[in-house]
From TrEMBL:
Organism, scientific name: Paenibacillus baimaensis
Pfam family, one: EF-G_D2
Function: Increases the formation of ribosomal termination complexes and stimulates activities of RF-1 and RF-2. It binds guanine nucleotides and has strong preference for UGA stop codons. It may interact directly with the ribosome. The stimulation of RF-1 and RF-2 is significantly reduced by GTP and GDP, but not by GMP.
Stored NCBIfam families: prfC (TIGR00503), PRK00741.1 (NF001964), small_GTP (TIGR00231)
HAMAP family assigned to the protein according to its UniProt record, in alphabetical order: Rel_fac_3
InterPro entries: EF-G-like_DII (IPR053905), EFG_III/V (IPR035647), G_TR_CS (IPR031157), P-loop_NTPase (IPR027417), PrfC (IPR004548), RF3_C (IPR032090), RF3_dom_3_sf (IPR038467), RF3_GTP-bd (IPR041732)
Record PANTHER family: PEPTIDE CHAIN RELEASE FACTOR RF3
Lineage: Bacteria, Bacillati, Bacillota, Bacilli, Bacillales
Highest taxon above the source species: Bacteria
Protein known as: Peptide chain release factor 3
Family, similarity comment: Belongs to the TRAFAC class translation factor GTPase superfamily. Classic translation factor GTPase family. PrfC subfamily.
């Protein structure tokens, strides 16, 4: 029996879940990803996730810097099937040093999983990544990890979500005991108890109960934990937020799950609930209104470009998020910015480190396109239209370095490299007033290292970076901008398009400048 096209499209779109895991390094993202892939039967990949971190001599051709440091500089995509769903996990760099790439990858996700270490609570990187998701209003699901260790009180953790991130929460389950005494969780939705069993807590037993008053709960939890558990659950019922599906969809309420990734505890329940609640690919905004994923016309946008995955070939891969229609290998599409028709003949999909050729793909999927240097971040590819998806956001840089070229004779190459990297969105360039010194701004330290490496490897130029004390950049909109006003703990510079930008050494310096210039506007990004 052959299905007609619209029905097939609908099925393909409805089964897709595309998400990113946001967390601070060490919270357990690699471990959780690995477990999720195992549930999806993608065992071949599971070792790869770990391997990428541990092995310094990965067989593949990831960027040299990535191999040297044993970290993932740029994000890739992992795909697996579970229970009739097609799951795409967008991998965001787990290292302390992240970049705008990390932020941009989040625009390709339809939802996010926020992973939190139960002992550490909300950490800096989680907070930054959360804010990007928040701006987009996508659903956020929380997994509180490492419950097998002594952690913070679960109420304190929820309080922290609200205080630090400003998001309300609904615990889907609740821990019974913690640390060495962690017995399991009470599942509020399914009214069942999930237990850690055996000496190594590796066996999991699920017992259906009628509610938390059920005598079985007391029997299972034991006298010691029972009173506390009942008190907690009653408090949640009385004072906690009710479950509200719409608020979950709009990212105002986060469903919270407690578990332990390394012990595979609570991961499957989490996955199943997540797949149930997480959104399917939704319409995306474009210059010609919303583009429906079910539209038969293919469309997508480039959210990331990765260069030199194989230094020998100097190739670049443009990562495209499919927004509508069906992708078929060899299809012709319009590359809207330059207004050219191109043939997508050599798309590659990234399953951890392995490259596979993709024959077809649907909205929510990510494909990697071989890029001979024609793509830019934010580019739209589409069939039968002439629209562009809303420009990707740029993020205010937080780290700044003065950059000079060591060999003045290489200045032309230097400029070419800087232009190229600016275009890719790796760095932002500023120039000082008068002296015309070049200052680079980035979101994460790693971007400076990538810059140094690539300038040398691709353009044969050695650069010298001199870190500056600035922490904030604000685009200033004012009738008459006076450089003299920005001399103390700050500096006036210009961006690529000659907009005035002030760099500040501290939040205090920034606040006082704002106070002293009440008529001026200070913007986080270029106007
Ligand atoms: P990532 O940096 O976020 O990718 O974190 P990893 O997955 O590499 O985990 C960091 C460390 O935490 C590793 O030593 C893991 O073994 C450990 N870890 C992960 N999940 C758990 C957990 O549920 N309980 C405990 N005790 N340790 C965990």
């Amino acid at each position: 029996m052959s299905m007609n096209m619209p029905q097939k499209m609908q099925e393909e779109v409805e089964k897709r879940r595309t998400f990113a895991i946001i967390s601070h390094p060490d919270a357990g993202k690699t471990t959780l990803t690995e477990k999720l892939l195992l549930f999806g039967g993608a065992i071949r990949l599971a070792g790869t996730v770990k391997g990428r971190k541990a092995s310094k001599h990965a067989t593949s051709d990831w960027m040299e810097i990535e191999k040297q440091r044993g970290i993932s500089v740029t994000s890739s995509v992992m795909q697996f099937d579970y229970d009739g769903h097609r799951v795409n996990i967008l991998d965001t760099p787990g290292h302390q040093d992240f970049s705008e790439d990390t932020y941009r990858t989040l625009t390709a996700a339809d939802s996010a999983v926020m992973l939190i270490d139960s002992a550490k609570g909300v950490e800096l990187q989680t907070k930054k990544l959360f804010q990007v998701c928040r701006k987009r209003g996508i659903p956020i699901f929380t997994f509180i990890n490492k419950m097998d260790r002594e952690g913070q009180n679960p109420f304190e953790l929820l309080e922290e979500l609200e205080q630090v991130l400003g998001i309300r929460s609904y615990p889907m389950n609740w821990p019974i005991g913690s640390g060495k005494q962690f017995r399991g969780v009470y599942d509020r939705q399914q009214t069942q108890v999930e237990l850690f069993q055996g000496d190594d807590h590796k066996m999991i037993e699920v017992r259906k109960v009628s509610g938390y008053e059920d005598p079985l709960v007391k029997e299972i939890a034991g006298e010691f934990f029972y009173d506390q558990l009942i008190q907690d659950l009653e408090l949640l019922d009385v004072a906690g937020d009710p479950f509200d599906y719409e608020k979950v969809q709009s990212g105002e309420l986060t469903p919270v799950f407690f578990g332990s990734a390394i012990n595979n505890f609570g991961v499957q329940t989490f996955l199943e609930n997540f797949l149930e609640l997480a959104p399917i690919p939704t319409p995306r905004r474009s210059t010609q209104g919303d583009i429906d994923p079910l539209s038969e016309q293919f469309s997508g946008y480039v959210f990331k470009i990765q260069a030199n995955m194989n230094p020998a070939h100097r190739d670049r891969i443009a990562f495209l998020r499919i927004c509508s229609g069906k992708f078929e290998r060899g299809m012709s599409v319009k590359h809207v910015r330059p207004g050219k028709d191109i043939k997508l003949a050599q798309p590659q999909q990234f399953l951890a480190q392995d490259r596979d050729i993709v024959e077809e793909a649907y909205p929510g999927d990510i494909i990697g396109l071989f890029d001979p240097g024609i793509f830019r971040i934010g580019d739209t590819l589409c069939q039968g239209g002439n629209y562009e998806f809303d420009e990707l956001p740029t993020f205010s840089p937080e780290l700044f370095s003065k950059v000079t070229v060591k060999n003045a004779l290489k200045h032309k190459q230097f400029q070419k490299g800087i232009d190229q990297l600016t275009e890719e969105g790796t760095i932002q360039v500023f120039r000082t007033i008068g002296f015309d010194d070049m200052i680079l701004g980035v979101v994460g330290q790693l971007q400076f290292e990538v810059l140094e490496y690539r300038m040398k490897a691709e353009y044969g130029v050695e650069v010298q970076l001199q870190r500056m004390n600035f922490q904030f950049a604000r685009w200033i909109v004012d009738k008459d901008v006076d450089p003299a006003k920005f001399r103390i703990n700050s500096q006036l510079v210009k961006d690529k398009k000659n907009n005035f930008v002030v760099l500040f050494e501290s939040e205090y310096a920034m606040r006082s400048a704002m106070d002293k210039n009440p008529t001026a506007q200070f913007l986080e990004n270029a106007p």
